[in-house]
Design a protein that fits this description.
single chain, about 45% helix
Length: about 100
């Protein structure tokens, strides 16, 4: 997984590519925690993200919780069909703010 940051003051956008899986979820968790400390609102742009596993979902959920605790917001954009199917099957689609 590769992540690029777009800094918009109190808002940050993470441009994600590759796979968010067991191998990359620990790094993602650490990065998400740093970003949650830095920004009030975060957008995960998943245009180039090919796959997300349950470990990746856990990292996203942890980011959502951390932002919600400080009245911030997590948005997710450009989700491909495979990743969206995982969000829907796990019920996260109803929790997360997903915009195409």
């Amino acid at each position: 997984m590769d992540v690029k940051l777009v800094d918009r003051g109190t808002d940050g956008e993470l441009l994600m590519s590759g796979d968010l899986d067991t191998k990359t979820s620990r790094d993602a968790d650490q990065l998400f925690e740093q970003m949650a400390d830095r920004f009030t609102n975060i957008t995960l742009n998943m245009k180039e993200l090919d796959y997300v596993s349950s470990a990746g979902l856990r990292a996203i959920r942890n980011l959502y919780i951390k932002l919600a605790q400080k009245n911030g917001k997590l948005s997710i954009t450009n989700v491909n069909e495979n990743v969206m199917e995982v969000f829907e099957m796990t019920g996260l689609a109803g929790l997360l703010n997903i915009r195409q």
